[in-house]
Structure formats: structure tokens, C-alpha cells
Amino acid sequence: MSELLARLNKRRKNGFTVAGELTAPVSGFHVTALFGPSGSGKTTWLRLLAGLERPDQGLIRFGSQIWFDSQQGICLSPQQRDIGFLFQSYALFPHLTAEENIAFGLHALRRQERRRRIAEMLALVQLEGKRHEYPHRLSGGEQQRLALARVLARRPRLLLLDEPFSALDLHLRRSLWRQWRQLLEPFAIPVFLVSHDREEVLTLAHRVAILLDGQVWQTGSVEEVFNRPRDAAVARLVGMETVVTGRVSSIHSDTLQVQVGRTTLMVAVPDDTLADASDLTTVGLRPPLVLNPGAEVLVCIRGEDVLLWREAPAPTDISARNVLSATVVHLESAGPLLRVRLDAGFALMATVTRAAAESLGLRPGQSLIAIIKASSIHLIPRS
What we know:
The chain has 10 helices and 21 strands. It is of the alpha+beta class. It has 2 domains: 3-233, 3-Layer(aba) Sandwich (Rossmann fold), CATH 3.40.50.300; 236-381, CATH 2.40.50.100. A 6-stranded mixed β-sheet has the order 7-8-9-3-10-11, with helices on both faces. The chain has a 5-stranded antiparallel β-sheet with strand order 2-1-4-5-6, covered by helices on one side. Helix 4 runs antiparallel to helix 5. The longest helix is centred in the middle third of the chain and has 15 residues, at 170-184.
């Protein structure tokens, strides 16, 4: 048994319930992101895994070792689980220097080994020149790296990260994401990362668990979950700005025609869909998507998958199957990007850079062409 399995149920006094199942390999470096909106139970899941809170029912097994079993009455302490937990606030000791913060928790090591470990961790996080500095003298990024060094110095079997980048600005977060992957990979341990940042999850994680209202709603590889959400709530959470109702009008060998408002869209049949049009049910979606003519579906499209042109290109210039006449309804700022609300016979959202918007001269009321690949459209059963 070379995986971590957590099948838990925890009901709070206010009635909020955390429940579901999480799994992760325990050998090698592997990041599982707990992704969801604020208040969805992400941090509670970390605290349950760490032993800081006790579930009402369930099982936590790390490899062959039982950490918690409500039926057998087993509940190991956080120390017995040998977990590293990096809190959102970093929890550095303000009265200790950088090297003293790392040394905290290493008292079981002999003095020479302790010194070697401290030097190793300071070098790992590039803080050798800051060993005698107190936390308040360090930048936000340096404090974060020091907190990580202190956690890793104990050589934990499992690392829990509670939104470690949330206090940093976007530019610094982006520069640190890949650094962290490079730092953590040699330790070859599983990592659970709490996040509500899509870009962070896409950069750092191998797998993702979607949490909604305390429930584990969907799990899988990052690519699978972000490209094939199981319902409208997950679709919006993973960045599919357009979620509208449509109806399958016809089925072909590799495409479907779906009527959405006044527009007919061509949608690629997923690779894992049965090829026989008489029995087209998508494998791997929950619930199954029955693709029969007349079936009602939710049509999901990412804003970045909608290309905007001033005029319709020649058919030989593009391979996309959907070339739609559209009108700009509204422009909305989204940091370095603009969200463009369109009327394309249905409500459609596009995301463009400010440079692209300026080049196109985007303005409300403007007519243009929206282009969408058939493979960029995701369908969900209407239920």
C-alpha cells in the first residue's frame, strides 16, 4: 500500500460538514492541490490530516501505517505522524534568528549534525547570508523560504502547505512557484497544497481535489479536472467563464452539433467517447453524458480559447470549426487582461490582453468575429 488514503467525515457545531476521500502516492515528490473558494473546508482538511483536529468518522492511512481509524479507536498525534505543516502566517519565532528558527525542533540531533543540517537548509533556500537576521529584518519572500527551511529540516514524511503564497504580490508569487518545485523535488515526499489561485495550481500541482462546501467534489490530474469539470460549479471554478445551456441537434463520427441560443456550435467528440453514435456515452464524466439528439447539455468555454478577429478569415487560414459573428456588449478589467462580454447568439466571454484589445479597437457595440475550436468546447449533462 504505497498511497495516502483519507476517507473522513467531520461535522462542526455550526453544521458545516467536511467529508470525502483524498488519495496521494507516498513515494516520490507529488503535489496534490486542495482547490476551492474561501470557506470550502480546505484548511480543515489539512488540520484533519495533520492530527490537529479529530474526524468524527473515517480512516487515514499513510502507506501501511494507520494514522486514524474511528472503528478501531486509533488516532496518532501530529508528532507520531511526522508531518511538516507550513501555516499561512509562517509562524516564525520573532525572538529567534534565522538559524535559530531552523534549529528549533532539531534538538534530538547531535550538535555537529544539527549544525550541518542548519547550514544545508540555509543554503537550500539561499539564506546563508541571513543566518543571524531576525524575521522582521527579512523580506516576505525570505520569511517564506525560512519557514519552509524550518519545516523541511525535520525531514517530514508529508508536507502540508496552507496558502503559503497568499501574502505575497503576484510578481513574487510567480517567481517563487517554480523555485519551490525545484526545492521540494529532491525531498521525494508527498505535498498537499491549499490554494484558491488557478495559476498556482496549474504551475505547482500534479493532482487536484476540488472542494465545495466542505465536500471533495472532484479529483483527478490537474489537466483532467481543469479540462473536464463534472458540473457547472466546477467549470466556473476552474476558469470556464462561459457556461450556457445547449441542445444536441445532430451527431457525426467526430463532432456534434449543439444548438446554443441562435447559434449552432460544432463540438469535438472527446477521445474517450464511444465512437458508435447509437451509444455515445462519455466515459469518465460524472454523471455520464448521454449524447443523443435532443439531449440538453451545459456548454463550457474558457475565455482564453475565444479568438477575436475584426473580419472573418479565409477558410484556408484557420482550422477552427466555429467562426461566429459577435457584438461587444461590455469590457471588464481583469488585471493585465480584459474580459470581453459578447453577444454571439448566446452570452459568450472572451479574455484578451490589453495590447490585443487596443489593436482591435474594442468598444461596446462593435461587430467582430469570435473563433472557437471544436476541441475547446466542453459539454456537461444538464442536471
